[in-house]
Fold each of these.
Amino acid sequence: MDSGILSILCQQSGKKGDVQKHLNVLKERMLRLFKTLKVPPGKLGELKNILSLQLAEKQMLEANEETLIQLQEEITEAERSAEHIEETINRLQNKIQTLKRQLEEDEKKAQKVFQEDGTGALHLPELPKRSLQAPYLQDEILKITNQKGLLKDMNTIQQSADMKNMLTLIEKIHEKVDFL
């Protein structure tokens, strides 16, 4: 049995030697190919300037990082601005809703005031009774004993500058109200 083991070990060591020889042959072939391999001249120059290229890349990376930080700040600012605009829009929409409700209420009130029946007559609110019971101004004037003196006083009041200014003011107010 010892002789069998020794024979197997010899065969394996022989195979090992063959494998080793084959690997050495492959190694030599590869080295020969590498020696004949030509490197492009531009690439060779770049290999010599690797440190300067690395420094340039590092500077470009730093510049890009600074730009990225600035862009992030601008994005944050834009987000804040968008939030502010959104809040303003919401506030204005709420205000619009409130004004719409108020307009609807005012229109309902106006419809109640100006409701027409089939005849086309308006249903206006009733006048207070005391306005109908008030004495007419003409009757009161006829009761005055000194009517000529009253007429002179009223004429003086009508001709006064204050009265003219007041009448002009009333006319302008009427024009503005008509314009609205």
Amino acid sequence: MKNRFVALIFAVFFGGFGLHKFYLGNIFAGIVYFLFSWTFIPSILGFVDAIILGTMDERKFNAIYNHKHYFPPAYTSPIVTAPPSVTPIERLDVLIIKTCATKAIGATVSECIVATGEDPQKVKETIDSLCRKGFLLPDNREGDYAVVYRPI
């Protein structure tokens, strides 16, 4: 991590050779400063860089030269979530009815458990509740006579 004070010292004492540019990671500018150091123009530019580095805010320096390590201040905002539109038991009801409706011959309890991913006991209780309310009709499948549930 680069230090602003070290860059300032390099710019004041070795600015004519571009050492501060090498330190700050600007290799191309450092080479140009070094190649033209015999003209004293880089010395003037190094002095200007020293003034800029000396007056620069620490946060701005970190944002420019330490961007890999710089994390801007985090602004927290409250997370707003919408209230659930349906209760979980109603959602399970809907999933079970959809599962039974997608199969032409109805769905077994195990097919409903796999489709919903819920606890088997909870699925069985919900299927019984749907049968009592008149939404599902228990029936036997032809061939293996397994109990299937069909929507009414």
Amino acid sequence: MNKTTSPGTSFFQMRLVQHLAFWGLSFYILARHFAYEQEIQRVDLIYTLLFHLSLWLAVYANLLVLIPRLLQRRRYGLYAISIAALLAAGTYLNILTFDSLADRLFPGYYFISYFKASEIAQYHIVYLAAATLLKLSKGWFEAQQQQKRIAQLEKEKAEAELRALKAQVDPHFLFNTLNNLYSFALDGSPQVPEAILRLADCMRYMLYDCNARQVALEKELEYIRNYIELQRLRLGESAQVEMAVEGSAGEVEVPPLLFIPFVENAFKHGLKGDGQAAFARIRFRVGSESIFFNIENDTAPPGARLPGTQGGIGLDNVKKRLNLLFPQRHELVVYEDGKVFSVTLKINKKWY
């Protein structure tokens, strides 16, 4: 028969052990203190127990009532007044315990309060301060842990969304290119071997490099070049495609497949391979503070969407990825004037 323990029970047990350990240590220290460096006698234990009665009352009144209802609600003035009243009550109760209650509880012993009221108040101040500090420290630590858990959950959620969004991009290029290769093969084109090699490079990048959170910008650029060359094979001389890179990619890294949806859009809506002259200009500029990307192509028809799955997830897909990856650290501008369709993306290089 298996026995399980609920998280609430385990938490209560841990709290109980912590409190027992604190008061056990307190009892031992005060018993040694009250014994005046002699062996601890029975009377010392009784005296220590009675002395703790007012301490328990003051500490738990502070922990269970004053801190949650006043201090944590920032009612500092009322909390200070309540602590002063609690100190007075604890001191009075301690004196009353030894002057009136102790002899009745333990008639075989004679007890008196050894300490002045000011000294008893000092004991209560120490315990109240320690309890308050421990309570606030524990609350701060638990709040930090909760924030970390929330941040981790948000990070995992964002990563899951990114994986889902990126997964919608990956198959699209593969299926389109395979269709192109099928057409080349039917026509007996001698360019099929070159196309297969370039497709293999693209697939290698997608399968092995794109699983990482970031990839080298140079690899992303090479992937785009391969993609463009594969599209050139399909479009022939009717397409004018230019790609220019300014600055050094160096050790710059970016999320994989970040720019390809914009390039696909140009070929889908601008460079159709219908024999008419068409153009697409792609520019990258890698600066010290930002990465600049711009692509221009013949005007896309009204309502055109960036490529994605059927149903049109293209532009929404890209915007969601950008918002997840670069919140408040990117600028995306889509412009159309009736002749040219343009997309400009600027990313702060300090995003990571």
Amino acid sequence: MKHNFFVVFIVILILISLITCNSNLNRAEIDRRARQVQEEIRKKEEKAKRKTQEAIKQTFIEIPEDEVTKQAKEKRKKQLLNEILRINP
């Protein structure tokens, strides 16, 4: 019995709060706000997609090597070539 009374009391409180709620939103206003939210979500998704695409592009762009790096690469290639020639006469 107490449980039923509690449930009825909660339902009455909810109904009172809904009735006294100062809600001036009509259907058109709700739809307009929903479209705004959808548009914001779409824009955020497009922005995230652009950022991801830009990051992917940046990973495939080669970074120009400076002269020291080029010389170090050439030196390492020569060392490896000499080692290969020494192993396989």
